[in-house]
TrEMBL record:
Keyword Transcription tagged: no
Compositionally biased region (Polar residues): 1-10
Basic and acidic residues: compositionally biased ranges: 11-22
Spans through the membrane: none
Protein name as catalogued: TlyA family RNA methyltransferase
UniProt region (Disordered), positions on chain: 1-34
Highest taxon of the lineage: Bacteria
Gene3D superfamilies noted in UniProt: RNA-binding S4 domain (3.10.290.10), Vaccinia Virus protein VP39 (3.40.50.150)
Domain RNA-binding S4: 90-150
Length: 327
């Protein structure tokens, strides 16, 4: 009886002498399509990499590398369309400093935030805006030596506090508060700071300014203001609680004088209560900082007759407050 053998090969394979089996037309088509796809991807990656380096390269053509025309238009690097994008970029605040349009990054940030900077004719309010050497940057002149000056200006206007003839600037730093007091009519300003060489030259050389550097406010005595009480104390101190320097500050005030002091919650609540970046985010903690300063003043026989949030936050974003103390 004839013996029939049933082949176990699938219908799309056939026996061959050199490989044992071979692909049918359908199999070859699938393999060929995969190879073509790999060629397309490889060609597109090489083209896109060259464009990303800023080289002017033609878009891939249809042909042996595959149909890349439409994909090329979608993935074409911006530098291939706009040569200006190949130029190095820098943050706007840094560009203002490097071009001499701002004294520092903080000063630049203030100019930008208050809408006094334009790039290529358009106003910009983001310090992180990227510009190139070809960008046309304009900044309105700022006559204040620091952003602290703007804070004190806002407090003086809102509270209606008179400056008087003699003023003590506690924590003078570069001299923002000192400058404002001089422009408001002060005849003598004692610029006191524990640091050295921070006051700007234009104020240091002003005959109305008495510079007291390296003086810790805890050790302040009447002799430091030439033995005569002052009409107004303004203060912006950092890295120390106001409650620790209130007594010496108030001791040099003349009868009827007042103190207009900046309360910085980040230096009042304690490090363990600070949020990310050293910012006090809890409104209750901010209020507690103000209350602590006011309570300390009351124990010394002084009262707070006005307080308000500063028109500008601290450089890290902390909300700050002014308090006015009177005897």
């Amino acid at each position: 009886m004839p013996c029939w053998t049933v082949s176990t090969f699938s219908a799309d394979r056939e026996d061959t002498s050199d490989h044992g089996h071979a692909l049918t037309d359908a199999g070859r088509t699938r393999r060929g399509a995969a190879a073509a796809g790999r060629a397309r991807c490889h060609g597109l990656r090489r083209w896109h990499h060259r464009a990303a380096r800023g080289r002017t390269v033609p878009a891939p053509r249809r042909g042996t590398a595959g149909a890349l025309g439409r994909a090329a238009e979608v993935l074409r690097h911006p530098a291939a369309r706009d040569p200006r994008r190949c130029q190095p970029t820098v943050r706007l605040d840094l560009a203002l400093v490097s071009r001499g349009l701002a004294r520092s990054r903080n000063h630049a940030a203030t100019l930008i935030r208050t809408g006094r900077v334009s790039v290529d004719g358009a106003a910009v309010t983001r310090a992180s805006r990227l510009v190139t050497d070809q960008s046309v940057i304009h900044a309105d002149a700022d006559r204040w030596v620091s952003r602290a000056a703007l804070k004190l200006l806002g407090a003086l206007e809102e509270s209606g506090t008179p400056v008087g003839a003699r003023v003590l600037d506690a924590g003078a730093s570069t001299g923002g508060f000192t400058q404002v007091c001089l422009e408001r009519g002060a005849e003598r300003v004692y610029a006191i700071d524990v640091g050295h060489d921070q006051l700007v030259p234009e104020l240091r050389s002003d005959p109305r300014v008495v510079v007291r550097e390296g003086l810790n406010l805890r050790n302040l005595v009447l002799d430091d203001v030439d033995g005569e009480p002052v009409d107004l104390v303004v203060g912006d101190v950092s890295f120390i609680s106001l409650t620790l320097v209130l007594e010496p500050l108030l001791s040099v005030l003349a009868p009827g004088g007042s103190a207009l002091l900046l309360v910085k919650p980040q230096f009042e609540v304690g490090r363990h209560l600070l949020g990310g970046g050293g910012v006090v985010r809890d409104p209750a903690l901010r209020q507690a900082a103000v209350d602590a300063v006011v309570d300390a003043a009351m124990t010394l026989g002084w009262a707070c007759d006005w307080w308000a949030e500063s028109i500008l936050p601290g450089t890290s974003g902390n909300v700050e407050f002014f308090v006015r103390l009177t005897g």
